[in-house]
Every structure is written in structure tokens, then in C-alpha cells.
Design goal:
The complex is a heterodimer of chains A (94) and B (413). Chain A is mainly beta and 94 residues long. Chain A has one domain: Folate-binding fold, CATH 3.30.2270. In chain A, strand 1 and strand 2 form a beta hairpin. The longest helix of chain A has 9 residues. Chain A starts with a strand and ends in an 11-residue tail after the last strand. Chain B has 413 residues and is of the alpha/beta class. Helices cover 30% and strands 25% of the residues of chain B. Chain B has eleven helices and 18 strands. In chain B, helix 3 crosses helix 9. The mean pLDDT of chain B is 95. The chains are: A mainly beta (94), B alpha/beta (413).
């Protein structure tokens, strides 16, 4: 269990939040034009790194807004939280 | 040395000081025919069946820690096969068939106990779900009995039938039960070594050498080895290993926790499982209640879960069994499980030639150990998955032929 800093509400307990998996996965612009392998990759295949992970969370029991979290999956340490639409933070894994 | 009553008596004269080691610690060689990466039950079992059924010589199992120290020794030991879909039913029931003869086959008591598993229903929807699954089990030749409220109350008299989510019925699989998880790893390790398999502990794979799309060797912390074939059988590091070989997997690694209570006199002679309130519990032969529930819902390799998940396990347990409410919980722990989108495993070929994978067992791999190992050994030996393993290929994520136990079994494995 950890404390997450919601970009809108500040630091709150993790139980207020829900994780929605890897962030920065763009939906293919023309789904009808891509083959099964590309579509399968988009739907199911994930980087699942042992180290820095970029992921989407919602503050379900708070502002209910979505945001991104940069977290180390080995230590569970949260490196940074940032708003949807912002690009990946350019920080080396601490 | 064979384990038998005669040898037990014989060794008692020397105060049991002369039993030979169950398996040795050989040095790493420079070349192997087949290397199995991962010395859990599935990996050791694969090596065992490769040696026994397919006569493969020169097999090694690489284990980064020690035998029985990974998820094989961290699970809640429940064994069942009452899955909804035909593909899963075939795979898990194959495992139960092998479980039934395993102690004899391995000459190691894995303490397989077919004490029966009650899957509880708490709503009309749950009753419909267990009927559907029960009838599907009948069609697949898997034993299943639908019990009404009265029958359940009679079987488990101290269960609270009228909690906030009353117990309305249950699906009972009598052939289901538990086994001693460590003994499964130890038994396979010992039996495999007797057939010439080399078990290399504290040997972590750091790199997979691929040349012209074909696996040729492995880099480990103990040195490099040349190989003809490799079977990856990890529990919580599938993506890490796949990345070493240059491909990715449809997997997320998440923590799954379990806990045990202080030991008490025998009280629970079956396995209780509820998806709706979400808890599963059985009593070990030592007397501890072994309790588990869902995984944490975020990726992690930390082998630690959230404290709120423990509360989520305990709340339904004491609701169902108020009699357990004053028990102390002795230990809690977490393991990392690799979850696929459809909650079914991945068994088969990879984009790299001669590199095979058996992973993604999520929260419920222990029950499948002998079946998984058996079909994977054939996959590695023949280079092609057999009939049982075929539906579990990586390709199902491109073709769309998912074996969707996520929707069917909802959560608990």
C-alpha cells in the first residue's frame, strides 16, 4: 500500500485509487487497416517492465479524474505523477 | 534410495543420519541438450517428463533461487478442474488425473488430498453461473454436484448461511482438494535427478543468445552454456525472460497475497471458495487455515501486496465463518503472478526457434502442475504443442480465440 499524489487533490491513500494498466498506448488511427497481429499487439501485449513503469490511475474515491503515474515496479516507489496528455517525464530511474 | 517402510525402519537404526540428499548440487556444464529455466513445480515436472517419457538425456533445470522457494512454495495449494471452457477442462482435468497417481509415481508423498471443494453461490446469478459451469463439467466428464442451501448447511454446519450475502447453494467437486506444495517441488526434483536431470540452483538467467532466429545459448550468473532447446517456465518473470529473447508477451505481473492462521484442531475438512464475496480457505494438515483471495490490481515485482487486500480477504472469511473471527493470523506473504488477458496460461512455441514457453498461469497455476509439465514436456520434445496445449498458444491473442476464464471464473482460481 502506498501514498499517491493525485495531480489534482494531492497526497492520498492508494485505496482511493484504481490502476488501469500501462499508459501511453495509442489506439491505432485506422483499426480497419491493420492486421490481426498489430491489433493483438495493441489490445493485449504490454511492456510489463521490471523497473520504471508508466501507468494510468483514476482517483475513484476523490476527484474521479484520470492521470498518469511513473513508478518503479521493483520498489513500488512512485517517481512522479502527471496529468493526462502530458508526455512521459524525462527522468532517469532513481 | 527408495522411500519405503523398510528403508524407514532400516534408517531408524542409524538415527536417520544416513539418508542420502534428495537431490545434489552439480556444477554447471558448458552444454546441455535441453535447459528448463525455472525450478518450480512446472519446470521440474517438465524436466522429469522429458527424461521419463521422452528419454531425453542431458537436461538441466536452472533455478535462480532454491527449489521450492518461488511461487510453488507460496500458493494456497488448491487443486480443482471444474473450469467452464472445454480447453481448460481438458488441461486441468489432465492434471487431476496425474495428481491421483503422483505420490506413487514420484515415490514421494505429495499429500494429495481429494477432500472436495465447495464453490459457493450467493445470488441468483451465482446459482445460474454454477449450474452452467456444473453442466459444462458434466459434458466434459468432470465430476460436479449442485447442492442447494440445505445440503450445504448440512455439510458445513458452522458456516454462516445468512450473512449479508447469504449462501444459496454450491458447486461441489469431490475430486478437488489440496496437496503439499513444497513436496510437489521436492518430489519432482528428486525423481528428475534420479533420471539424470541436473538441477542447478542459484543460477539466474541473465541473457538468451539467439542467432538467426534460433536459440543457441544462455548467459547465467554462473557462466554461459550452449543449448539445443530451452523451455522457459517462469512464474513471475515471463516478460523479463521474453524480453531477453527479443519478444514481448500479453502479460502483466501483479502481487498475489495469502496468509495462514495459527494452527487449530481439525475443523474444515474441505476447501471453501467464493467468487462473489471473494475468499478461499482450506485447513492444512498442520492445522493452519490457509486463506487467499484476489491479486493486487497494479503491476509489481516487489513480492509485497497492499494491506487493504488482506482486509478484503479477512472480511468475507469472518462473515462466512464467525467462528474463525478470533483466530490470529500468523504469516502473510506475497508472490508475483503473471496474468494474461483471458486468465488462461500460455503454453507453446515462441517467435524464437527451439525456445518454448510455459507461463501466464496467473493466480492458479499450482493445481495444474503435473498436467502443465506433462503437456509442456511433449511440446519441448516434439517442437509442436499437443492437442491439449494447442489452444493455449501465444497466437490466440492475434486470432481472437481466447480461452476466456476471466469472464467464466471471474476471479478466484
Amino acid at each position: 500500500m502506498f501514498v499517491i499524489k493525485c495531480p489534482y487533490c494531492g497526497e492520498r491513500d492508494q485505496t482511493e485509487f484504481v490502476c488501469h494498466g500501462e499508459a501511453h498506448i495509442a489506439r491505432p488511427e485506422k483499426p480497419a487497416d491493420i492486421n490481426d497481429e498489430e491489433w493483438g499487439n495493441y489490445l493485449f501485449f504490454r511492456s510489463n517492465p521490471k523497473g520504471t513503469h508508466y501507468e494510468r490511475w483514476t482517483h475513484d474515491h476523490g476527484c474521479r479524474r484520470w492521470f498518469n503515474v511513473m513508478r518503479d515496479t521493483v520498489s513500488d516507489k512512485i517517481i512522479k505523477t502527471y496529468k493526462m496528455g502530458e508526455s512521459k517525464p524525462d527522468i532517469e530511474n532513481e | 534410495m527408495k522411500y519405503s517402510i523398510l528403508n524407514l525402519v532400516r534408517n531408524s537404526f542409524s538415527y536417520h543420519e544416513n539418508w542420502q540428499k534428495a537431490w545434489s548440487s552439480p556444477e554447471l556444464k558448458s552444454e546441455y541438450d535441453v535447459v528448463i529455466v525455472g525450478g518450480g513445480g512446472h519446470g521440474l515436472g517438465t524436466a522429469y517428463y522429458l527424461a521419463k517419457e521422452f528419454g531425453v538425456k542431458n537436461i538441466a533445470v536452472f533455478e535462480k533461487g532454491w527449489i521450492g522457494g518461488g511461487n510453488t512454495g507460496r500458493n494456497t495449494t488448491i487443486i480443482r478442474s471444474n473450469y467452464l471452457w472445454d480447453e481448460s477442462a481438458a488441461l486441468y482435468d489432465h492434471a487431476i488425473n496425474l495428481w491421483e497417481g503422483l505420490s506413487g509415481e514420484l515415490n514421494f508423498n505429495v499429500m494429495f488430498s481429494q477432500r472436495g471443494l465447495f464453490h459457493l453461490a450467493h445470488s441468483v446469478h451465482d446459482l445460474q453461473e454454477i449450474s452452467r459451469r456444473g453442466y459444462s463439467n458434466f459434458l466434459n466428464g468432470i465430476d460436479a454436484e449442485l447442492l442447494n442451501q440445505e445440503q450445504v448447511a448440512k455439510k458445513i454446519p458452522y458456516m454462516n448461511m445468512n450473512g449479508r450475502y447469504p449462501v444459496l447453494g454450491a458447486l461441489l467437486q469431490r475430486r478437488a482438494g489440496t496437496a503439499r506444495h513444497d513436496a510437489v517441488a521436492w518430489g519432482y526434483a528428486r525423481a528428475a535427478e534420479n533420471l539424470g536431470v541436473e538441477i542447478i540452483q542459484n543460477c539466474e538467467v541473465k541473457g538468451i543468445n539467439v542467432s538467426n532466429g534460433k536459440v543457441i545459448g544462455l548467459e547465467t550468473n554462473k557462466g554461459s552454456v550452449k543449448v539445443n532447446k530451452v523451455g522457459l517456465v517462469p512464474a513471475g518473470h515471463s516478460s523479463v525472460l521474453a524480453n531477453m529473447a527479443g519478444f514481448s508477451l500479453p502479460i502483466n505481473s501483479v502481487p498475489l497475497q495469502a496468509l495462514v492462521s495459527e494452527p487449530i484442531k481439525p475443523i474444515l475438512d474441505c476447501v471453501i471458495m467464493s467468487n462473489a464475496v471473494h475468499v478461499y480457505v482450506s485447513q492444512s494438515d498442520k492445522g493452519e487455515l490457509v486463506v487467499g483471495a484476489g491479486s493486487d490490481a497494479y503491476n509489481s515485482y516487489s513480492q509485497r501486496g497492499s494491506f487493504d487486500m488482506i482486509e478484503h480477504m479477512m472480511a468475507p472469511l469472518v462473515e462466512l465463518f464467525p467462528i474463525f473471527s478470533r483466530l490470529k493470523m500468523l504469516r502473510t506473504w506475497g508472490g508475483i503472478v503473471d496474468v494474461t488477458p483471458d486468465r488462461s496460461p500460455i503454453i507453446g512455441k515462441t517467435p524464437v526457434e527451439n525456445l518454448f514457453i510455459n507461463c501466464g498461469w496467473g493466480t492458479g497455476g499450482f493445481k495444474a502442475t503435473p498436467g502443465s509439465a506433462h503437456v509442456f514436456a511433449e511440446t519441448v520434445f516434439k517442437g509442436e504443442p499437443n492437442k491439449i496445449a494447442t489452444p493455449f498458444s501465444i497466437e490466440r491473442h492475434f486470432s481472437g480465440a481466447l480461452v476466456d476464464e476471466a469472464a467464466a471464473a471471474a476471479v478466484a482460481h
